[in-house]
Design brief:
The chain has 474 residues and is α/β, with parallel strands linked by helices. The chain folds into 2 domains: 31 residues, no CATH class; 368 residues, Alkaline Phosphatase, subunit A. It is built from 17 helices and 19 strands. It binds calcium ion.
Length: 474
């Protein structure tokens, strides 16, 4: 600092304007202190708006965060699967640009030099720490593999993954709904406390780090692992949902059928086709229990923000990493180009902005990187695919963009891309097949209206053709 002042003074003798700017620079950074960033990622959390779930789920802490922030009712991921979605969010690039379209390739394998969102803050002086699933953990078999998948060192000063204790692994009730055909379709009401599960430990560690860092600016990633499968949560969260109080989704008659690659593909489709109404309800109950369990852990983190009066200093972003079908089109999980899978939860609470607001403006998860950079006063280190959402946060009626885009791949050379405008969802498969849904008349996307609105197809196709090309798979 002393050496800097001396140099500034010397320059100032000859260049008064430069000298003035130098003097003001520390004042400007004092006037705009670094905000904390709390990125809460929830694995496989669907957007509960609409359909039959809104009034069923018990998630008071999600409601509490909504009361502090702005809820995006039309926010879309760029690839509706864990790893591709998270790599897209963390780089601010579309999956077409990252080339990461599956759960088998860690970020650095394809993008060794990209500056990730937490890394941007870390390199600018924020303390950066990850707890749980921020990046996909890739089934990392050991601590070293998990550190690689979490991008420890580059994105974070520390990155920590958690596992259930012996008590948390003991199931008091539960079974595999597919009889073992799909290993992940296991549910279980577990013995033990919240902290016997990873999400309880993730909340505890997040709160402890917030308290340790005190006034030091931080970027903390809090990555909850439920309601992702296996659908295991402490038993008390199952008890919130008596089985008889729930009903399973049932698709209405007359729905337009779609190709197998659109939904219903692979072993999953065959297994789900055998589900009884009771089995759909059983899985739904377990998904809701996992959601309420996660929500209770979220509450512990929000308590820490209350206790330490951090809301005015902290940009809080909560996302799901994609949507989730809980029975719609006989599908359970993600990885489709329907609204249920592409639309994901997004809540942002920003310092100084009123809470309890919702927006219908279209937003994409590639917008989050430039949003954080904007709030933190940091320059984008590479060309952004998205836009800062700050104008929507200032005024929820702002229409920032007229379309959101999502990609899926289906092996071989087949892939599908979809564009969601305020009214339409148009899906184009790489072999030329199309689907078109009219959200004004049909928010559940039951009826393909490609034939009735053929005039729209060239223009919507043009929009998809303007996306960056999908890179070759090595
Ligand atoms: Ca996920």
């Amino acid at each position: 600092m002393i050496a800097g002042r001396g140099r500034g003074g010397m320059i100032g003798m000859k260049h008064p304007v430069v000298f003035l700017a130098f003097l003001l620079a520390p004042l400007a950074s004092w006037a705009q202190p670094k905000p904390n960033v709390l990125l809460i990622m929830v694995d496989d959390l669907r957007d509960f708006g609409g359909a039959y779930t809104r009034d069923v789920v018990k998630a008071p802490n999600l409601d509490r965060l909504r009361a502090r922030g702005i809820t995006f009712e039309r926010a879309y991921v760029q690839y509706p699967v864990c790893n591709p979605s998270r790599c897209s969010l963390m780089t601010g690039l579309r999956a077409e640009q990252t080339g990461i379209v599956g759960n088998d390739v860690p970020l650095r394998q394809r993008m060794p030099d990209i500056v990730t969102l937490p890394q941007l803050c870390k390199d600018a002086g924020w303390q950066s720490h990850a707890f749980g699933k921020l990046y996909h953990l890739g089934g990392g078999k050991d601590a070293e593999a998990r550190q690689r998948w979490m991008d420890a060192d580059r994105s974070w000063h520390t990155a920590q993954a958690f596992e259930a204790t012996a008590a948390g692994r003991k199931l008091l009730e539960g079974r595999n709904v597919t009889g073992g055909a799909l290993k992940w379709c296991q549910w279980g009401a577990a013995d033990g406390t919240d902290d016997d599960q990873p999400d309880g430990q993730i909340a505890s560690a997040t709160v402890a780090m917030i308290e340790t860092l005190g006034e030091t600016p931080w970027f903390i990633g809090c990555g909850f692992m439920k309601p992702h499968d296996p659908f295991i949560a402490p038993k008390k969260y199952f008890d919130l949902y008596p089985p008889d109080s729930l009903r399973a989704w049932s698709d209405p008659a007359g729905m337009t059928g779609v190709r197998k690659e659109s939904v219903g593909f692979g072993d999953y489709g065959a297994a789900f086709a055998k589900f009884t109404e009771e089995e759909w309800r059983e899985l739904f109950r377990a998904y809701l229990a996992g959601t309420s369990f996660m929500d209770a852990q979220l509450g512990r983190v929000l308590d820490a923000l209350d206790k330490h009066r951090l809301w005015d200093k902290t940009l809080v972003i909560l996302v799901g990493d994609h949507g989730y079908h809980t029975g719609e089109r006989l599908w359970w999980s993600k990885n489709t180009l329907f609204e249920r899978s592409c639309r994901a939860p997004l809540i942002i609470a920003a310092p100084g902005l009123p809470g309890g607001r919702t927006t219908r403006s279209l937003a994409e998860f590639v917008d989050l990187y430039p949003t954080v950079a904007d709030f933190c006063g940091l320059r984008m280190p590479h060309a952004a695919a998205g836009l800062s959402l700050r104008p929507i946060l200032a005024d929820p009626a702002t229409q920032l963009k007229d379309a959101a885009f999502t990609l899926v791949t289906r092996g071989g050379n087949l892939y599908g891309q979809t564009i969601r405008t305020s009214r339409w969802r148009f899906t184009l498969w790489s072999d030329g097949e199309t689907e078109l849904y009219d959200h004004d008349a049909d928010p559940e996307e039951l009826h393909d209206v490609s034939a009735a609105h053929a005039d729209l197809i060239p223009q919507l196709t043009g929009r998809l053709r303007n996306l960056p090309p999908l890179p070759e798979t090595p």
